[in-house]
């Protein structure tokens, strides 16, 4: 028998879909998520599936998985320390952005958290014109000095995005060669290879996002690949990318930004396929997970795919299925609500731990209502007052969430 295995790594469980080719049998299996290394849950789950089937690792002929590693690195801001090399005089493109803004007239609007540390976005003398001609030759010595500066300051990933490199990439390619010679092993992304298109801000933003995720995803997928090889699986594993298709480990390392919504995209593709079988051309796929809820839309049996969308507030110019992710799902609210009910003044403690901000507001609102009504005081209160406190607390918590969203809060926020 031969098995095809698809894996989805979520925030609470790691889910397996197993297809046995000869009989056409399809079954599913859940394994607890391993927070310290999600590849451990994948390997352990595969071994349990094979044990249940009395099969060997050599019988696995296909293995692919959707991952939230890149998504979580962006949400939690646990990516690489990035240095940016661009055309001299244009090193503030990431800070300036474009005219179109989500809060044009809101003085309290919050900009996305910077992915580049202060002083790590630098320009070098060079200039290519709109027709690809060289206006100013590349100052190679300036590039060498800048790479040495990055190295001395602990930069472990470099993004290169110069003007009009999508027409003439000669300068970017030479910068990449200099980086490889002066700082061997550092992760490097150049825009002319990743996204050779016009729109300077979107191109630089996509390049920076890719560089930010590069070292994290490189470590993860190499560990994943080695782990499945160690248990005897002979096929090369694949990773689901944001448009619902799959890419190799090599391409995942080179273009990790393509996995920004890796996990949910496979579910949308599956929902579209089921819709074709059922004759349902309009579907809303909805996935309620342990840490987030994912929602998409299918029309005429086809998922909606955009060529550019915001990823944690920054434009990513790559094909992605349109998926809305809402942080702090039911499991988080349930746990925190129970926590707030069990422990007096829990809302004060929650202000100082790194849990999703919406969940904090929910429990804080709940606690404030209870404190106001004196439910936790020694004087106590009747059952009717207690019930009112519970309902009022929930309502007030939700109002705080809506207030937070109105003031510029994103889908994922942390104190």
The assigned structural class equals alpha/beta
Strand fraction: 15-25%
Bin the helical content: 40-55%
Radius of gyration: 25 Å
Low-confidence stretches: 345-364, 368-382, 407-415
Instruction: State the end-to-end distance.
Output: 51 Å
User: What general outline do the C-alpha atoms trace?
Assistant: globular
Describe it.
- The protein has 415 residues and is α/β, with parallel strands linked by helices.
- 41% of the residues lie in helices and 21% in strands.
- It has 13 helices and 22 strands.
- β14 and β15 form a beta hairpin.
- α1 (38-53) crosses α7 and α4 (140-152) crosses α5 (170-182).
- The longest helix has 31 residues, at 200-230.
- The radius of gyration is 25 Å and the shape is globular.
